[in-house]
Structure of Gastrin-releasing peptide receptor:
Amino acid sequence: VEHRRPIIPVSAVLTSEDSRFGNVSWDSSGQQHHYIWLPGIGIAAVYGIIIIVGLVGNVTLLKTCLLVKSMRTVPNLFLSSLAVGDLLLLVTCAPVDASRYLVDEWLFGRVGCKLIPFIQLTSVGVSVFTLTALSADRYKAIVTPLDIQRSSPTLSICLRAAAIWLVSVTLAIPEAVFSDLHTYTTSNTNETFVTCGPYPHAGELHPKIHSTASFLIFYIIPLFIISVYYFFIARSLIRSSLDIPAEGHLHIQKQIKSRKRLAKTVLVFVGLFAICWLPSHVIYLYRSYHYDQVDTSLGHFITSVFARILAFTNSCVNPFALYLMSKSFSKHFNQQLLCCPSQPRLYSQNSNTTNMTSV
């Protein structure tokens, strides 16, 4: 197909350019025929696995963090908010993405065209801004711990989580406003089809603005802020390890070790987000700045599919990354997954401090 196609934004569903190897063919008389495309079924099956694994992992994470009293820590409240955003993405946007490999028609109407990109960008915003807030929380816990002790952690975290959702929803409103159904015509058969696009398809300025703004707001700027936080965290941890004597400060050493472990955990989450979402951003930027040069090669199609699957994978990996990095979380995770009641445990006078630093 040689006409100008709509292109994938980070915040929109798959367009016909990525399903063009799929489910429609034309005979010599121009008659349209639908058929089952086996690779499309395989791709949709991968999406199904991602959805199921993500639902199990994130629901169990929510149960663990909210139902187990010892797991209601400051970082885990943030992780619960992150899990809600991931669940929202998995139950709404992932099935829509998968459907583009099974049918060439947009099945969800004009309302769906506006709602699905809005939900996806909201979820992406919740993810990256929550990771930024988690990094800020680790900075305060390690570099300025006295400030945390004087604050009300639960109320403060709930307000910050609500603010993150509000900001994410606000930034996603333009997606709902400008996304709409557009009609395209194939150059070789004059057949028309309707698909969802995130902006008017007249001119080249809209895709460039959209892709660049998405890359800066939802990737570059948050990751830069997180990098600054972790620079000061690393510097503080190095200084702390040098200043504390080997004997007589066992409690302080344990506290620093716990905070260092949690800082590493948050950093792993940030790394997973950066790795999983970078290919989608790069492909969208490439398409936006080569809007008149549609790449219809099989290699570009495979790369696009991989990038989309990798982006959705980010919504299911966090619970299992935390499972591997935290013994206490993995124990309670197993109990909640198997619906076993957690055993009561005794709390020491230092439980409030642990509540600030442990996962």
Remarks:
- The chain has ten helices and four strands.
- The longest helix spans residues 205-243.
- The chain has one domain: 16-357.
